[in-house]
Each structure stands twice: as structure tokens, then as C-alpha cells.
Write a structure and sequence with these properties.
It is built from 11 helices and 15 strands. The protein is of the alpha/beta class. The chain is globular. Keywords: Calcium, Hydrolase, Metal-binding, Signal. It comes from Sphingobacterium corticibacterium. Belongs to the sulfatase family. One of its GO terms (molecular function) is arylsulfatase activity.
Length: 450
């Protein structure tokens, strides 16, 4: 009998171990998405009346992005961009998806390949806990879009953080099953995220967990314990601001519990944590967007600039910062690259993995676009903006005149130069019209069978 070389026998014996190691060579991924969190409603920007130690720790242990943008100043379009890597209008979600058919302005394009489905190609187990807001019926439910597991909220917002209904309807689900739960929604989402992480102990596959809080979206209903702490610490704070700060700090406390679970489970060292918001903060509810102009729903910087930070122990240098202009849609190709995946279909986002490795890396110049389609005073029409070469052209509502700002000289958007920078206006207007034409070719309502 012919003897096999010793090295072949050893390779055969080691193959299961090597295969397991290969499966775990990619990082676990935890995306934490806040809802309507103001650009400066985190204490790592030294905002004096708020304490977010757990979000701050993500920034301290990793990289902070000071020019990170949502693709839209409202919820659904930004979430569509995050999960598809595309401008939201290119996947049929230029506006909010709501449960009222007369007031919904998006329908996720059938066939869109979402990030969890892509990550599954690299062996990831995928889950979403919290807010979905990209469809209420098949085929646009989380489990049909690449998530192995869903435990959370289907619709846009809660009418009450304890009663868990919207327009009298319960949209809490575990996978496809309606569920009843007791407790504050923020705490429930934290608890369900912890439960999921515990199911992944000992798994040979990495996990992709998308934890999408509804906090601090209206209604501003913090737990009484957190509100009392804020009022005791900040005696001069207004009631409105105190409630918002308390709700944010309640969310931050939950984030701390999730991170503590990662550490206790031995998962933290190989977990990349991404923290983001879906748009800027709502000013009339007390949000702090720093000194940038305006807030949620607008095309000014306060509506689209968001807090963002990413950590990954031993891979991202702690305490680093980047001022490169990035968008939510850039998360998709970045995570794909880190998971060793090629993206073979059309996307608009660009990977910034090089910045995670070297915070001084620069992105290639590109125009970036923002959109919002809405009902009410918008009449179903759109507002939009484009930024190119650090000039920004925007139309803040469908009936407003265009405005032009030089963000290098005027980052607070106080000096409209549309009458003095004609060449820039023409260039940006052409870019915007071309983007509108492309987006206009994509249906944003469910297509009825003829």
C-alpha cells in the first residue's frame, strides 16, 4: 500500500480547525443606529448638559467622523441607503414609508440586495433588533431581505414607548409573528439585542447585528429614573431639553449593556461597532445639532450631518478622527470589503475601509446628493441638495428658491452666494438635474399588476 506524505495527513487532520478559523477570521459587526439623534447630542463633543459615556467609549476606542452625513433628513430613505449602499431614490425610497397608504412615499424596489443578504455570502449570521421602517408587508419584511432573525418594530414611529402601537396598530414582531411586550421600547430593544448576542456564544460563524433604536425620536418619553437624574444634575435645564437628554442617556445606558455583553461573552475583541444616526436632531423637541444650521427634515447641515464613530479593537487606532465627507450608503461597501466580499451589482456608496486603517486617508472627490419626498405642504414633491467641491446647492422645500453656499468659507450656511457664483450654480444644478432624472426612473410606489 502506497504511503501518503506526512504533510498531507497533517493537513487532513488540521482541515476542520483551519476551516473554523477561516470562518471566524472576519469581524463580528454591530451597527447601532439612533433615531433623530442631534449632531452634537453626544458628550464626546463636550456638549455640557448630556452624558453619553458608552457612545463616547466607541469613539475613544476607535475613530470619530466629523463630516458624516445621512442620505436624507428623514428616517426611511436614510435606512434604505444604509442597507443597500444606494441613493434612496434609486431603490424606491425617496420619502417615508408609513402604514397609511395615502401618506407613504416609498416602496423598496423588489430585488434590492440588502447588506445582510450580502454578509450571509461570507458566512455571517444576520439579525435586526429594533426599527425596520422599510416595508410592512411581503416581500419587504426583514426576513425576506436577508435577516435570519428579526425582533423589533416594523413601522416608522411609536405613538407611545410603553404601549407599542402606531395609529392603534401593534407593529412589534418576532420574525413574522406579532408579539406583545411590556416595558419601555428602548429597554426592550436593548434586552433583545443582549439575548441575541448570547445565542451567538460559541458560534463558528461571525454575526451581523443591526440594532436600530427608536430613541430619541418623538414622542419624548424617557423612563422616570433617567429624567430624575438629568434634572438633579442639570438644575437650569428646561423640561423639554431634560426629557430629550434623559431619553438619549437611557439609550446610551442600553448601548453600555450591549457592549458589556460582548465583553462578557468574549465577543468584543473581534467585533466592529458602528454607531450612527439616521438624520439630524429635531430642534423643536430640544435637539442639539451644534452650531450648524437647522435640523431634522431640512436640507441644511443640521438636518443631514450626524454623529458617527466606529471601533474595532487592535484594528482601528484608538482616539483617531476623520473629516472626510462620508454617507450612510458608504457603510455597505466598507463592510463588504472588510468581510472579503466583492459587490457585483450597482451601488452608489464608496468604501472608506482605508480610513479605518489610516485616519489620514482621503476619499476621491465626488458629488453627493440628498433627497426628501413628502406629503402635506410638500404635495408629494421633493426637496433636495447636492454638494460638490465643497459648494452646496439646495432647495429646502419644493416651493423654495434654490440656495448656494460655500461650505469652506461659510460652514454655517449664513451667506447665500447664488447671485455671485453663477458658474458654481450652473455646475451643481446640472449635477442635481441629472440625479433627479435617474431617480425619477425608479418607481416609489408598489406597482399594481396590469
Amino acid at each position: 500500500m502506497k504511503r501518503q506524505p506526512t504533510y498531507l495527513i497533517l493537513l487532513f487532520l488540521l482541515f476542520p480547525i483551519l476551516s473554523s478559523a477561516q470562518e471566524k477570521s472576519y469581524p463580528n459587526v454591530l451597527i447601532i443606529l439612533a433615531d433623530d439623534l442631534g449632531y452634537h447630542d453626544v458628550s464626546y463633543y463636550n456638549t455640557p448638559d448630556i452624558r453619553t459615556p458608552n457612545i463616547d467609549e466607541i469613539a475613544r476606542q476607535g475613530i470619530r467622523f466629523d463630516n458624516f452625513y445621512a442620505n436624507s433628513p428623514v428616517c426611511s430613505p436614510s435606512r434604505a441607503s444604509l442597507l443597500t449602499g444606494r441613493y434612496p431614490e434609486m431603490v424606491g425610497v425617496p420619502g417615508l414609508i408609513r402604514n397609511q397608504v395615502t401618506d407613504t412615499f416609498g416602496y423598496l424596489t423588489p430585488g434590492s440586495q440588502l447588506l445582510p443578504a450580502l454578509m450571509k455570502q461570507a458566512g455571517y449570521k444576520t439579525a435586526i433588533v429594533g426599527k425596520w421602517n422599510l416595508g410592512l408587508d411581503m416581500p419587504n419584511l426583514p426576513n425576506q431581505k436577508g435577516f435570519d432573525y428579526f425582533h423589533g418594530w416594523l413601522d416608522d414611529m411609536l405613538d407611545d414607548y410603553w404601549k407599542h402601537t402606531r395609529n392603534g396598530i401593534n407593529f412589534l414582531r418576532e420574525n413574522g409573528k406579532p408579539i406583545i411586550a411590556e416595558g419601555h421600547a428602548t429597554d426592550l430593544f436593548t434586552s433583545w439585542a443582549v439575548d441575541y448576542l448570547n445565542t451567538q456564544i460559541g458560534s463558528e460563524n461571525p454575526f451581523f447585528l443591526y440594532l436600530a433604536y427608536t430613541a430619541p425620536h418623538a414622542p419624548i418619553q424617557p423612563d422616570a429614573e433617567f429624567l430624575a437624574k438629568v434634572k438633579a444634575r442639570e438644575p437650569n435645564i428646561t423640561d423639554k431639553r431634560a426629557k430629550l437628554v434623559a431619553l438619549i442617556e437611557q439609550m446610551d445606558d442600553g448601548i453600555g449593556k450591549v457592549i458589556s455583553t460582548l465583553k462578557a461573552n468574549g465577543q468584543f475583541k473581534n467585533t466592529l461597532i458602528v454607531f450612527l444616526s439616521d438624520n439630524g436632531g429635531q430642534l423643536d423637541l430640544g435637539a442639539n445639532n451644534g452650531n450648524v444650521r437647522d435640523g431634522k427634515g431640512t436640507m441644511y447641515e443640521g438636518g443631514i450631518r450626524i454623529p458617527a464613530c466606529i471601533s474595532w479593537p487592535e484594528h482601528i487606532k484608538p482616539g483617531t478622527q476623520s473629516t472626510e465627507k462620508l454617507l450612510l450608503m458608504d457603510i455597505y461597501p466598507t463592510l463588504a470589503e472588510l468581510a472579503g466580499l466583492s459587490v457585483d451589482h450597482k451601488i452608489d456608496g464608496v468604501s472608506f475601509a482605508s480610513i479605518l486603517k489610516n485616519s489620514g486617508s482621503k476619499m476621491a472627490p465626488r458629488p453627493i446628493f440628498f433627497i426628501r419626498r413628502e406629503g402635506g405642504s410638500y404635495g408629494g414633491k421633493i426637496s433636495n441638495a447636492v454638494v460638490n467641491d465643497n459648494f452646496k446647492l439646495l432647495q429646502n422645500t419644493p416651493t423654495s428658491p434654490f440656495e448656494l453656499y460655500d461650505l469652506t468659507k461659510d460652514p454655517l450656511e449664513q451667506n447665500n452666494v447664488i447671485k455671485t457664483e453663477e458658474a458654481k450654480r450652473v455646475t451643481l444644478h446640472r449635477l442635481l438635474m441629472k440625479q433627479m432624472q435617474k431617480g425619477g426612473s425608479v418607481p416609489w410606489q408598489k406597482q399594481e399588476e396590469q
